[in-house]
Amino acid sequence: MTRLAGRRAVVTGAARGIGYAIARRFTDEGAAVALVDVDRNRAGAALAGAPAVVADLADPAQARAAVDEAADRLGGVDILVNNAGILLMAPLLEITPDDWDRAFAVNVRSMLCTIQAAVPYMLKTGGGKIVNMASMGGKVGSPGQAHYASSKAAVIELTRVAAMELGPLGITVNCICPGYVLTEMGAATRTPEMVTGWTAKSPLGRLASPGDVAAMALFLASPDGDYCTGQAMNVTGGMIMH
Ligand SMILES: NC(=O)c1ccc[n+]([C@@H]2O[C@H](COP(=O)([O-])OP(=O)(O)OC[C@H]3O[C@@H](n4cnc5c(N)ncnc54)[C@H](O)[C@@H]3O)[C@@H](O)[C@H]2O)c1
After folding, report:
1. Residue 193: CB partners within 8 Å, gap ≥ 6?
2. Domain tally for the chain?
């Protein structure tokens, strides 16, 4: 339980769901974790003892300031997990430019900003680990999510180019492509038929838990993942295999 002993980690979107599971798992493994989220009430109460930083990561200035505040409270940054994201659903012909821009601002531009802010802290100790949350949808989208899926495809390519540029500086950059994870995201419109249909796509016969995704984040953020960079790791229960 000490795979991240002495590490200082910033996890975005950590007030609930997958981000919370990552923050808790990292804490269990000995890391000092700062939670960044737009949800002031839940971020503050999510993890006892962990600093909570409130920010709307769609705003570049807030995204950068959130990393600076987290670094200040942790005494540095060794690990950055860019997990915050929003799911938008609309038929292709009804997606507005504002919806499109919102998906990209929250889901991918925020990552550019937090990476730019976090790298100087990582360089103080000679390197670091960056884990971005993409999606199965970034490889194989579904009808009704053109803006979401496109933003997640952009996360995958941001990850690859960042890995090329930051590898020589001692920083690995990877992303995770979860399949269908049972969280509050999408819960409002989730039907039993949808759950049955998605479950049937997995050879393992079940949907993902947040803990399944947190386990991959731990691997990539720990020394076990030292020789992995630029990868888009599927945690889909085999729903997709490339
Ligand atoms: N749930 C799934 O099936 C699934 C599948 C693939 C990928 N993902 C991705 O995993 C990540 C986490 O998803 P989840 O299921 O835990 O979602 P969730 O909605 O339960 O949690 C997302 C968190 O991000 C925060 N957030 C949203 N917008 C923000 C902003 N502008 N600034 C700061 N914080 C913000 C929310 O307040 C929330 O705490 C997302 O990037 C999502 O796209 C989820």
Report:
1. none
2. 1
Side chain identity, residue 206? R
Q: Do the domain assignments include residue 154? A: yes
Residue 22 within a domain: yes
Please report whether residue 240 resides in a domain.
no
**85 Cβ below 6 A of ligand 1:** yes
Give pLDDT tens digits for 46-102: 899 999 999 999 999 999 999 999 999 999 999 999 999 999 999 999 999 999 999
CB atoms within 10 A of CB 161: 11
For this structure, is 148 an active site residue? yes
42 domain residue, yes or no: yes
pLDDT tens-digit series, residues 152-167? 999 999 999 999 999 9
Taking the CA of residue 43 as reference, the ligand 1 atom at the shortest distance is 39
Q: How far is the CA of 238 from the centre of ligand 1 (A)?
A: 22
- Tens of pLDDT, residue by residue over 130-144, are 999 999 999 999 999
Q: Token pair for residue 189?
A: 């419109």
| Structural domain of 144 | 8-235
Atom number, ligand 1, closest to the C-alpha of residue 14: 39
